[in-house]
Amino acid sequence: MDQDQRQRTLAWHETLELHELVAFNSIGLVKVKKGLREIQDPQLQTIYQQTIRELEMSLQELLQFYPLAPHPGESSEYRQYGDSFLAGDLLAFAKASVRNYAVAITETATPALREVLLKQLNQSVRGHARIYNYMYQKGLYPSYNLNLLLQNDVNLARRAMS
Fold first, then answer.
1. Do both 150 and 139 map to the same domain?
2. Does residue 89 sit in the same domain as residue 139?
3. Which of 36, 54, 78, 121 could in theory staple to 155 by disulfide, Cβ–Cβ 3.0 to 4.6 A?
4. Same domain membership, residue 128 and residue 100
5. The domain containing residue 129 runs over which residues?
6. What's the rounded Cα separation, in Å, for the pair 162 and 151?
7. How do residues 75-131 score in pLDDT, each as one tens digit?
8. How much is the pTM?
9. Which of 49, 92, 59, 76 shows the shortest CA–CA distance to 159?
10. How far apart are CA 64 and CA 58, in angstroms?
11. Do both 117 and 67 map to the same domain?
């Protein structure tokens, strides 16, 4: 692949990472916007407002790369329901949980703590599989349809920014 082609098309692996970031930031943006309504402290409100602006800018910047993503097959309409958002939020939490336990284990010197963390890591992996399988079976996470996966991200990001 020559340099011109690389500049017009994202690689598959970076497209999937882009997808993960857009989905994670979109869910976070919705949660931060909802949380802002509950905050009484003016300083914390300012922090939340800055976070909202930064997340919106991040999404706008990331979405600019979507036209460069590879597009196999055909795309279809995104199904956006309340359960869809909540399931996606749980999936993002499950992924973060697996990563956090894996990192914590590499920092653990005490064997008894390592065993507990390993047990909880395995539990987190099973939890991730449980929510992923649910979402896949319900058509909420089309992991084998890249076009639909990316269109879902765009729709979620737009909804979060509106």
1. no
2. yes
3. 78
4. yes
5. 76-143
6. 17
7. 433 344 478 878 887 888 889 889 888 988 999 888 898 898 899 999 989 999 999
8. 0.57
9. 59
10. 10
11. no
